[in-house]
Amino acid sequence: MSASGTQTDTTPGFGTAAFESFLETRDEPDWITAQRRAAFACYQASQHATLDSEEWKRVDLRRFHPEQYELCDQPADTAALNLESLLTHRTEFAGHVTHLDGHCVGQSVSDKLRQQGVLFGNLSCLLREHADVLRPHLLTRAVQPDKDRFASWHSAFWTSGTVLYVPREVEIREPLHSLIALARDGATDLGHTLVILEDGAQATLLEETLSAGPQTAGLHVGAVELLVGRGAHLQYVQLQNWNQQVFHFAHQAGCVAQNGQLQWTVAGLGSKLAHVHQDVTLEGPGARAEVNGVTFATERQLISFWTQQTHQAPETESDLLYKEVLRNRARVAWRGMIRVDPDAQRISGFQRNDALLLDSDCRADAIPGLEIEADDVRCSHAATAGQVDDEQLFYCMSRGMHRREAMHMIVEGFFHDVYDRIPVEVVRDTLRTAVERKLGILN
Q1: Residue 301 phi/psi, 5° resolution?
Q2: What's the structural domain count of the chain?
């Protein structure tokens, strides 16, 4: 499979026979099976369709061989693993859900939240038990199964997943935690995250991905759907921290209703190759979205983001800030777009991408863009890239710092603008720790 070419046949591990066998293991309602079959038809058709060149031309898929991966019947033995979460040892959570090798292996939620009508846990189980609440939202409003072959692949074969549903006017003060892990070589996770906040609700969900070992090769083809009701407020964080043997592909979309607020933070730290398609749509007047991104790529990593901020209603506001640090022969690509519909007057849209290059062999591509069909708007974008200033290094080292310590201070200062926008202290501390590890400060 290539970004511009086609694939001659459906991936063997995900062909027709594999799909039918997969359905037999699911024990799902008829409506989910029908949704999967429609997505699988799109997936088969997409094998001979060219991926969008503007989105994918900077993503080299020649290293990706999907035939090497398959779904796991059973997850690895959790008792023999050390799933080292960067988040859980730093704070208390109101609920947890853990997925391993495409299976839910643990979940819990406080009695207080249950009594308030909050749903949190394994998507597969909750879809069967609460279809009336969740069915209208799954792969209908945000992520579109026919977007491309990765979206349809996920929509046909999604395995485990996390769902958070918060009823009208319910405010959850403590954060919730979702962990997605891979432990088996060749394992594929097609996890789905579905967050629904009814009008006036508030919640914080922290989600992280990790590998059980440094050399475990795996594949993640995921999706995230964030649906924010009128006057609701969602804080969502995804910390992508796979090892450097994992391929990571994801479609992620957020929809914000009138006067709703979405604060979305993404961290791209791990994986061999990652591509994230991220959409934010402001559907109602007064809706606001703040999108924060932190990326640190090393060795030969390729991390790519395609982002779009869509203003569909008047007096909406979007603000995107991505910060990227690269070293060795790593590469980061970002393509951003602000789209303003004709009726979206008096809106404010901004996007900025800054890259800091620690070595001469790394590369950052930043391409911001605007598509404006309204005439009373305030939109702007900016992108910068540069190397570490030798005078800054000299200044720090002349005051007794080791070169690594000086570099850490400079990188920390570079990321500080994003840290300041994150109100959850545990997230700020976790990002700092992850950056230190990639710089070699910590073992």
Answers
A1: -65, 145
A2: 2
Same domain, 276 and 403: no
Decide: 327 and 358 in contact? Cβ < 8 Å. yes
Last residue of a domain, one of 263, 283, 303: 283
Collect the ranges in the chain with pLDDT lower than 50.
1-9, 442-443
Domain boundary among 230, 249, 283: 283
Contact, 109 vs 122, CB < 8 A?
no
Look at residue 436 in the predicted model and tell me its pLDDT. 81
Residue type, 148: D
CA distance 436 to 407: 10
Give 376-402 pLDDT, tens digit per residue: 999 999 999 998 888 888 888 888 888
- Residue located via tokens 């979460």: 85
Whether 409 and 274 share a structural domain: no
pLDDT for the residue 77: 80
Residue 236 near residue 205 (C-beta atoms within 8 A) = yes
In this structure, the strands spanning 95-100 and 103-109 are antiparallel
Q: Does residue 89 belong to any structural domain of this protein?
A: yes
User: What is the C-alpha to C-alpha distance for residues 195 and 174, in angstroms, rounded to an integer?
Assistant: 16
Residue in 189, 212, 175, 179 with CA at minimum distance from that of residue 81: 212
In a domain, 339, yes or no: no
User: Looking at the domain assignment, is residue 364 inside a domain?
Assistant: no
| Domain that includes residue 66, residue range | 12-283
Q: What is the pLDDT of residues 297-356, one digit of tens each?
A: 999 999 999 999 999 999 999 999 999 999 999 999 999 999 999 999 999 999 999 999
Closest CA to 182 of 190, 172, 194: 190
Domain assignment present for 306: no
For helices 30-46 and 16-24, what crossing angle results, to 10°?
Answer: 160
